[in-house]
Each structure stands twice: as structure tokens, then as C-alpha cells.
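Practice problem 4.
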């Protein structure tokens, strides 16, 4: 058996360092946000400062801060499932240079950054409406439970099965040809879109549970890693059953 070469081990070292940096930054930001008191809302829930501006802060600055936090969080959460795909890319496109690898990574996490760019105004808009409407604020805990129930139910559908199958057959994204950086960027973006599509229900669950909640992030990261690395619909259904159970509990508690 051929002994591992330095070039074979380097990507794993870089991935480990990136993961540590992303996880450490995410933990720091989460603790900083949790130290700030949220706004108590009618209905018994607390509006997190993630969707609010600091005094004297512009919406552009608030959006930029959220986008930076979201992207680093996605690096920490998605790197366990992205690292094997990056390794396959490097092996398949061995003749391509370092810029192609950078393009592949940029394409993948660029998609997740774009997801954050869409989510920020949605979150800000919903919370702004909740501050203006006492009725919406009162039913928000019920809505959160319903979103979790819907996300859990989606884990049992043929949509989820097809998404996992597409991940299973999407390994040879670049063949063995020499790739230009722009081709690698497109390949990474395609993989990012497939991944965001497959993880849509779990992303919704994270938003409902608390986008800066460390426990929620850890659980969602574990669920994503388990179902993506095994690519088993049975794992996805176990995760879905858990989300359904929590969603039913939240709805019942809010109603009662």
C-alpha cells in the first residue's frame, strides 16, 4: 500500500485548522450574543438580538455582521460533510492548481453565504411584524412548533430520498480533466446548491430553535453529518421523528 504523501495529508490539516477557527469564532459570537438581553415578547418567547440593530448601527452594518456570523457558522457546521467532497475533488482534478481548489471552496460556501443573505431580511421582517402585531407575537411559539413539525415530516418524503440520492450520485462533479478556477467555482456552487437543498428542513429547524444557540447548532450539525455521510434515508427519518416530537411538544405547550 502506498504511504500517505505530504500532499495527501495537507488538505486534512487545512480542513482541521479551518474547522477549529470556524468553531471557535462561532462559539465566541454565540456567547457574545447570549450575553445581550433579548426582548421579551407576548406569547412567552424572547426575540434574539441577531435580528436587531445595535444602538447607532446601520442596517447595512447589521446585515454585514450577520452575514459574517452566518458564514463562519456554516463553515463550522458543514465542513464535516464538505471535507470528503473536497478530497474527492482534489483527487479527480489532481492536475488542477491551488486556485481551482480555492475556487471550489469559494463556490460551495458562497452558496451558503447567499442563503444567509436571503434569510437576514426575512428574519428582520418577521420580527418587525411581531413587534407591531401582538397577535402574531402571541402565536409565534405555535408557529415555531408547526415549522418543526413540517420540517420533520419532510424527512419522510420522497423529496428527501431524492435529495440524498442526488448527493450519492453527485461525487464525480469534475471528472478527471484539468479544471480552470472558474470551472471549479461552478462545481463548488453546484455542490453547495445540492447541499443547501438537501439540508433545507434542518436549516429551518435551526432557525426555529435559535440561529445562535450552541446546543441547537451542535444537534443540527450532528444530524446533517449523520444523514449526509451515511446517506441513509433511515437516519433522515430518525432525525425527522425527533423534529416531529419536539414540534408537537412545542405546539402543545404553547396552546396549553
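Answer key:
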Amino acid at each position: 500500500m502506498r504511504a500517505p504523501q505530504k500532499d495527501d495529508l495537507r488538505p486534512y490539516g487545512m480542513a482541521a485548522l479551518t474547522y477549529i477557527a470556524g468553531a471557535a469564532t462561532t462559539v465566541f459570537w454565540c456567547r457574545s450574543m447570549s450575553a445581550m438581553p433579548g426582548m421579551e415578547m407576548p406569547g412567552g418567547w424572547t426575540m434574539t438580538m441577531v435580528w436587531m440593530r445595535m444602538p447607532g448601527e446601520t442596517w447595512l452594518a447589521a446585515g454585514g455582521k450577520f452575514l459574517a456570523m452566518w458564514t463562519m457558522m456554516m463553515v463550522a457546521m458543514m465542513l464535516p460533510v464538505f471535507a470528503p467532497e473536497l478530497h474527492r475533488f482534489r483527487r479527480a482534478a489532481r492536475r488542477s492548481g491551488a486556485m481551482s481548489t480555492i475556487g471550489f471552496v469559494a463556490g460551495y460556501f458562497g452558496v451558503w453565504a447567499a442563503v444567509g443573505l436571503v434569510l437576514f431580511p426575512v428574519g428582520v421582517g418577521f420580527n418587525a411584524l411581531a413587534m407591531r402585531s401582538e397577535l402574531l407575537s402571541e402565536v409565534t411559539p405555535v408557529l415555531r412548533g408547526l415549522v418543526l413539525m413540517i420540517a420533520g415530516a419532510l424527512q419522510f418524503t420522497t423529496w428527501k430520498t431524492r435529495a440524498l440520492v442526488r448527493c450519492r450520485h453527485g461525487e464525480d462533479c469534475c471528472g478527471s480533466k484539468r479544471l480552470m478556477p472558474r470551472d471549479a467555482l461552478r462545481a463548488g456552487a453546484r455542490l453547495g446548491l445540492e447541499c443547501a437543498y438537501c439540508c433545507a428542513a434542518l436549516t429551518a429547524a435551526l432557525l426555529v430553535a435559535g440561529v445562535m444557540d450552541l446546543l441547537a447548532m451542535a444537534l443540527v450539525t450532528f444530524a446533517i453529518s449523520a444523514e449526509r455521510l451515511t446517506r441513509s434515508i433511515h437516519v433522515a427519518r430518525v432525525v425527522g421523528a425527533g423534529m416531529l416530537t419536539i414540534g408537537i411538544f412545542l405546539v402543545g405547550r404553547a396552546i396549553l
